[in-house]
Fold this protein.
Amino acid sequence: AGQMFGCVSLNLAAVHLEQLQVRNIREAGMEVMAYTVNSPAEAERLVRWGVRAIFTDRPDLFMPYNR
């Protein structure tokens, strides 16, 4: 369906994402971006799954000086 509309990515709520969904979307040729991720641990998990980008309300938590 993504190719039919020229989609290259899906922006999805992280709270509802599952690893299998991310895999299926990527296998269909699209990237996955997740919102709203305010935990570095959650972001790391999503990246391991193949999520390419996250949206956050707390960018300060992701800055190198805060780790």
About this structure: The beta strands are 9-13, 31-35, 53-54.
